[in-house]
Amino acid sequence: MKQPAVTKRQPDKNSQKRELVAQDINIHLPAAKPEYKSMLANIQEKAPAIAQASSNFYKSHSQMMSVTLDVTAITPIRSVKHSLAEIEKTKAALQEGYFRMKKDEVKLKKIERKIKQEDDFLERELLEIKRDELIAKAESSRGYVEGAIRKLNFFTNQYDSLMEKLGKDTLTEEDYEEEEIKYHIMTCMKQALNAARSRNGMIDEGNLIYIFDLGINAAQAQAEVFSYLQWENELVKQGKAPEHHHTVQWLEGCAEKWKHCPTDFANSRGFQIMDRTSLTNTPLLKDASDAA
What global pTM score does this model have? Predict the structure, then answer.
């Protein structure tokens, strides 16, 4: 026998959210265990504060971690490149989340329509559960979307800060290519130095190959590492402390000293280190053979 339809007032979205937060979950627990009542009461009492605190952490990494352990490029233009990559990745995730949420909104509307049309009260209850499940899912997704927006805004501001440090309003592909020599020399020597610290001052094989591929003589690189480590040890013996900026200055000195090496090595093999006719965002070059 078909059950008569029951008219039920549909709560607004805000009241739905409140009901989901404060709903009675005792029905899921055995009635023979009253000790759970105090636990549930405690959970419900602390739920608003926990929800507020959780909103701080809907992102994978902290701001500090993002600019020290995630974007580890040692030169500014490379840092811009990595920051832009983070921006694009976050934008893509936000776009995906946006369309997923829009689809869920349509699904929710369709369920609401079915609830109004359903005569069987059990089927209607199932539909109401599906509706509440979608609402709860949307609330959870919203936290991660908000976290992504904060991350996107953070890296947007980091981009401005990096451009200010560079003293530029825009970057070209040529700017990026020109800094690559400095970036790779500083990076390979950074890795060589850190490897040498745990190898009695000796550079490891992987970084020796990296150094060779940049056209730098490995004996010179090893001598530079020995010299810098000796300078640090002398400073420590004097009761002084070597600092991070000393290492960065040494790396910049290595890059300046050997900046010609990658170009010379590439030229010796028949390569050009840069072909400006194959770059974007640069002035068009005149073709002398086409006077017209």
Answer: 0.75
